[in-house]
Amino acid sequence: xxxxxxxxxxxxxxxxxxxxxxxxxxxxxxxxxxxxxxxxxxxxxxxxxxxxxxxxxxxxxxxxxxxxxxxxxxxxxxxxxxxxxxxxxxxxxxxxxxxxxxxxxxxxxxxxxxxxxxxxxxxxxxxxxxxxxxxxxxxxxxxxxxxxxxxxxxxxxxxxxxxxxxxxxxxxxxxxxxxxxxxxxxxxxxxxxxxxxxxxxxxxxxxxxxxx
Length: 212
Fold this sequence. Notes:
4 helices, globular, alpha+beta, 8 strands
């Protein structure tokens, strides 16, 4: 995700205030106007801006990604920057457990890249509940409390995630209550939608069983 450095076509700009021109080919008229101090300042500021953009591009990519996640898509750029500062990168190899059923929940996970299987194991049988890919999230209930995980999460390929820990979100309430409140409100909406979907699915299955 790192951006390439801007091409150094003509080298760094002159120091501010200098108006000297590099010696030109013989025969060129000396009437060429010197570069103004204002233009030199503008050039210097442009290059400084490009350097800052180059250095911060991974952070900009992270903020852009966070904007696509339902928890954060209503946040301003400033608020997204705040969230970006408290999430952690967690990378997993193929077939590595991200968390295990019964383990106390600690964090919400966002998939930057890769693929994750959500599974339940009973005796010698494993049931796959979902296959999640780039842009998906899981483990959101851990933002509310440390209730045991209801399933396993396992990487199916090399997977890159961002993790938002409950303790960090709790501390955010003190520093930026508005941002924290918006995240919790989005969480409540998402959890509510999932519960409704689950209930509708159960009602459908029950109706199907009765018909049979």
